[in-house]
Amino acid sequence: MEKGINEYILEKFGIDQMDIRGYSPLVLAYIGDGIYDLVIRSMMVGKGNAHVNDLHRRTSQLVKAHAQSQMIGILQPELTEEEFAVYKRGRNAKSFTMAKNSTVADYRRATGFEALMGYLYLKDEMERMMELILKGLDGMETWRDKDEIRRADH
Fold first, then answer.
1. 33 catalytic, yes or no?
2. Is pLDDT above 60 for 148?
């Protein structure tokens, strides 16, 4: 079986893998924010060379709290019981920060979404994580307007 990214990184730095059930939902959201951002950045860069400002603008539209809140709304019927429980733990976690330009409700749902992404990443369930991200993006209005994305590429 091929190693996941997380397992590979931990092995290279000589760090033992922890039981992820012991991680707080905010820690899951912390790593989930990073891996989701990396997925979206990779997707944008994979579309071809572009100005960095354009890449940042397009990426920001998909990683901001409002977009993540929309995505989890689309994905909720697709989640397993375990995944939904992780999402709820993240959504209900008491965070001392708040995203700018975001409602409290969007921020909390986005935190739940990020916790789910972090959980799937740490479990090395990249295939499931990508399946959910693709379904979420396909269901989003901003993503559906592929003409706008193509125009921004040129």
1. yes
2. no
Instruction: Give CB contacts under 8 A, 24+ apart, made by 21-27.
Output: 23/118, 23/122, 24/93, 25/86, 25/89, 25/90, 25/92, 25/93, 25/111, 25/112, 25/115, 26/90, 26/93, 26/95, 26/111, 26/115, 27/118
3-state secondary structure 22-56: HCCHHHHHHHHHHHHHHHHHHHHHHCCCCCHHHHH
pTM for this model (two decimals): 0.88
- Is the per-residue pLDDT at 28 higher than 80? yes
Which candidate in 16, 19, 33, 124 is catalytic? 33
